[in-house]
What we know:
The structure is a single chain. The protein is α/β, with parallel strands linked by helices. The chain has 2 domains: 1-105 and 235-257, Spore Coat Polysaccharide Biosynthesis Protein SpsA, Chain A; 112-185 and 199-231, Spore Coat Polysaccharide Biosynthesis Protein SpsA, Chain A. It has 9 helices and 9 strands. It has helices at residues 31-39, 55-63, 78-86, 107-119, 135-139, 191-198, 204-209, 213-218, 238-249, and strands at 5-11, 48-52, 68-70, 94-97, 123-131, 145-148, 154-158, 181-190, 222-227. The strands form 2 sheets. A 7-stranded mixed sheet has the order 3-2-1-4-8-5-9, sandwiched between helices. The protein has a two-stranded antiparallel ribbon with strand order 6-7. Helix 3 (78-86) crosses helix 6 (191-198).
Amino acid sequence: MKLRSYIVIPARLESTRLPRKLLLADTGKPLIQHTYEAASRAKLPAGLCVAADCAEIVDAVRRFGGSAVLTDPHHASGTDRVAEVARQLADVDIVVNVQADEPLIQGASIDRAVELLAADPQASVATLATPIRSRKQLNDPACVKVVMDEAGRALYFSRSPIPHARQWSDDLLSADPPLFYQHVGLYAYRREFLLKIAAMPRSRLEQIENLEQLRVLESGHRIAVGVVDEPSFGIDTPDDYRAFVARYRAGRVPHAA
Length: 257
């Protein structure tokens, strides 16, 4: 039986490093619209919506013709926000969590995550990773690393460089197949598992690294990881946003289909 999937984009208005970033509109469109249009290019999901923490984002999404629902503003994480919407999606098997500040997410990447989960009945979650070829990136705590087993399932996620090279050589960065992978923060959840994991308390390792996906591993569940060539482009800082606007004005950002 073909599994039915649906995209939910959790959206929070306030952000520390770039205030109100989802409503910034130097391109003529709010950032949340760019992400919504990018996610809509996925072919497998039956639909998508924004799970917003305030009426201002709901209104912004509906103005460009998108679907949005108002969720509890007191949720601790985007996963909780996605789970609130998922409770109402009784006919959906897979719920895809797309970060709201990822305007360059590939529709094919979303489809890949759905396919991974559909193909691995023992996995509760699917996500993506991309090779790391820069030592600066490898050592950056903001770049989350992942190591996988031979079946392509996650062994661990960390802000530290993993695996740790006992003797460093720059040749390690050009190894084929790659040795180091950056986690791309896109998740496809089995709906029932999403509702279960959102109700669990934060795990020990999750609290130490501040990485929600460690709660899944600590609870004994499997995460399937697919490798893609290009990471998505998250907007976290004013410089990130300026770079995105420049790319858009240069015509290097896909427009809505």
